[in-house]
Amino acid sequence: MSNDFKADKIAREKPDPIEGVSARWLPVPPLLLTLFLGFGITYLWMQTDSLQFRDGDMRTPHEVRMALASEAGGGSLLELGETVYKRNCQACHQATGLGLGAAFPPLAGSSWVTGPPSRLSAIVLYGVSGEIEVEGTTYRGAMPSFHNQLSDDEIAAVATYIRSSWGNQADPVEPSLVAEMKQQFEREKPWGGQAELDQQDW
Fold it and tell me: Is the CB of residue 152 less than 8 Å from the CB of residue 175?
């Protein structure tokens, strides 16, 4: 074999492969990471309905219940209750809910208000005439009935309002409960003070 033939054969041979990493694949991992992050953020954004958490925010459980009740009533439950209170109750029980003299007991901090909603509804419906003890003090006054003046919704709203005002924290009163009290008692006379109210199974 001639030297020219050997030289030509060597010239036509491919170089030996070099071990290592090709630079053209380096952008792939960051690209995949970006795609995964983008998908995750988009998924969370689409699955989260609201950032306003009801039970996870800074409100008390009572405030949450009252807010839900207002939402269920179209946002007007407490506003209606406040209006009814100012027109029919404030002159006696005062804007502060502290009552007036020895005739009109306080509503603030009163177990008569925060106790059974059925009892409070019945009192607002039919009124009270006679002695009643409120937080250790006996009151001798007369509360008028409102079953002929106010609707079930209005009585439920004002009961809900006083159960959530002046530091009181009790559950809302439903109009259906007011209607139930009307059907159960069907009376025209006011309650005969605490003596008669205590005889009922609230």
Answer: yes
CB 144 within 8 A of CB 127: yes
CA atoms within 13 A on the CB side of 193: 10
φ/ψ bin of 130: left (φ > 0), alpha (ψ from -120 to 50), beta (otherwise): left
| pTM (predicted TM-score) | 0.64
**CA angle, residues 150, 156, 159, in degrees to nearest 5:** 100
Architecture of the domain spanning 62-197: Orthogonal Bundle (1.10)
What is the rounded CA–CA span in Å between residue 165 and residue 107? 9
Confidence of residue 74 (pLDDT cuts 50, 70, 90): very low
The ranges assigned to domains in the chain are 62-197
| pLDDT tens per residue across span 43-67 | 777 776 555 545 555 656 656 555 6
